[in-house]
Design a protein that fits this description.
The complex is a heterodimer. Chain A contains 11 helices and no strands. By secondary structure, chain A is mainly alpha-helical. Classes of the chains: A mainly alpha, B alpha/beta.
Chain lengths: ~230, ~250
């Protein structure tokens, strides 16, 4: 496997992961905030549905997404008109990445918001700040390490994504062949040495990402200790 | 930290650039066992039709069928089993199809077993403890079980089965010496570098007709060139035989 090939596969994987994790953030912030505020039966129900991509076998998520993103159905048709081909395309990979990053980020963010010291919120209230202003100037900066941590974990999860990606994107070299798909394909056709090369890269990436996420996790804890 | 993120994003955007899109892009969905053959044929095709770029997604034929059914932009479907082309035809997903070539099932081993397999039921031999084969649902498994069912051997041999989804997985199991024999395509055997002995070739009468069929997907935007490619593919007799498929 040439250096350029390895580089292309790695870049494509990172590109999809970055886009996916980024685009999932706004949704995660919104839903995470809602989850942190409301308790009770309906929240548990919603949370269970939104956490499905974590628990379901990825290939099941893939089958569902294949249907949702199909240009024969509503969502897929709109996306195709606005963005172009989604299936068998890196954009499909981004959709998968969004779906798998979202639950991780939402949990982190909602847990973090709940841990924001009540005193900070009360001080803001006593200064006459509205809820939105409090969110913007108090909560958001306080939980920012959690947001970044969620962003990074989303990238990590997207890099590891296989089952859903193989159905939605196929395995097209240079276009949809990510590290995970590349390893699988090379084992299938017998290029084991190349497969192990990709595994090594996957390990390096994973170590970097997990390390970064843990470091930020510690920083978040320090932030909340007043 | 922020600077690092910015630099990373910049580098990735550089990677996004890619080649221009002046060519016609054909997407070929091909069965995994055809990966290297399609690569070779595509290279030949592009030599003649320089303005065409061929992207190949090599996956399980069943996955390809699901993707085509969901409207994925696949122009040509090369299936390891007639079954999926027929299903696609029934679902009105393809516009034309072509028989490509055949393959054969063989029983192989990398161990010195000192036994001869003259007929399928010889698999019952007590020296054969574990048999690696593909499960039903993938073409290789469907063909294997078709023959085993026809010879009424499935239930008596069941305890010996170790399932491996494709030939490479079977060869992996063989290298770790956990199985005695494996059932794979003949074309797979001759691509494996480690020493393997073919103990038995399933005859035509055993029932499994391994027929590779190709089709042009109805929703393609490049119907003419897709049909040209399909016909070209079927005509590459030398390359096909080089990759150890059987031309009837």
């Amino acid at each position: 496997m040439t250096f350029i090939e390895t580089w292309q596969i790695t870049l494509l994987t990172l590109k999809i992961a970055l886009f996916g994790s980024c685009l999932a953030l706004p949704f995660s912030l919104l839903i995470g905030t809602l989850f942190s505020r409301y308790k009770g039966f309906w929240r548990v129900v919603c949370e269970s549905f939104l956490l499905l991509p974590v628990v379901l076998p990825p290939v099941a998520v893939g089958l569902i997404l294949l249907s949702v993103l199909s240009p024969q159905h509503f969502v897929g048709a709109i996306l195709k008109v606005v963005l172009g081909d989604i299936l068998l395309n890196w954009r499909g990979g981004v959709c998968v990445a969004i779906v798998v990053s979202f639950p991780l980020q939402t949990q982190l963010i909602s847990d973090s918001i709940r841990k924001v010291p009540k005193q900070l919120l009360e001080v803001a209230k006593s200064f006459g700040k509205s809820r939105l202003q409090t969110f913007w100037s108090v909560i958001l900066p306080t939980i920012s390490p959690a947001i970044v941590q969620g962003f990074i974990l989303g990238i990590g999860r997207s890099i590891g994504e296989f089952g859903a990606t193989v159905l939605v994107c196929g395995i097209i070299p240079k276009q949809t062949e990510t590290i995970a798909l590349g390893i699988y394909q090379r084992i299938m056709i017998g290029d084991e040495r190349d497969a192990y090369q990709l595994v090594a890269i996957a390990i390096l990436l994973a170590l970097f990402i997990v390390g970064l996420a843990r470091f930020l996790g510690q920083k978040q804890e320090r932030n909340l200790r007043y | 930290m922020l600077k690092l993120i910015k630099i990373t994003i910049f580098l990735i955007l550089c990677g996004i650039g890619g080649t221009g899109h002046a060519h016609i892009q054909l997407t070929v969905g091909a069965a995994s066992s055809l990966t290297s053959l399609v690569e070779d044929v595509s290279a030949e095709f592009v030599k003649i039709n320089g303005s065409v770029k061929i992207n190949t997604s090599a996956q399980a034929s069943s996955y390809l069928f699901h993707q085509i059914k969901a409207g994925a932009p696949i122009d040509i479907f090369l299936s390891a089993s007639k079954k999926y082309i027929d299903s696609a035809r029934n679902a009105k997903l393809i516009s034309s199809s072509l028989f490509l070539f055949s393959n054969e099932l063989v029983i192989v081993s990398n161990k010195k077993l000192d036994i001869e397999i003259k007929k399928l039921s010889d698999l019952k031999n007590s020296r054969i403890l574990k048999i690696a084969l593909a499960p039903r649902g993938v073409p290789l498994g469907d063909y294997t079980f078709y023959s085993l069912d026809k010879a009424s051997l499935t239930s008596s041999l069941y305890d010996k089965f170790v399932f491996a989804e494709h030939a490479k997985a079977t060869f992996h199991l063989m290298k770790s010496s956990v199985i005695d024999v494996g059932i794979v395509y003949k074309s797979d055997v001759l691509t494996e570098k480690s020493p393997l002995k073919v103990l038995y070739t399933f005859p035509k009468e055993s029932g499994a007709l391994i027929q590779y069929e190709g089709a042009v997907v109805a929703s393609t935007k490049h119907k003419e060139i897709a049909e040209t490619f399909l016909k070209f593919f079927a005509q590459q007799k030398e390359l096909i035989m080089k990759h150890h498929f059987k031309i009837d």
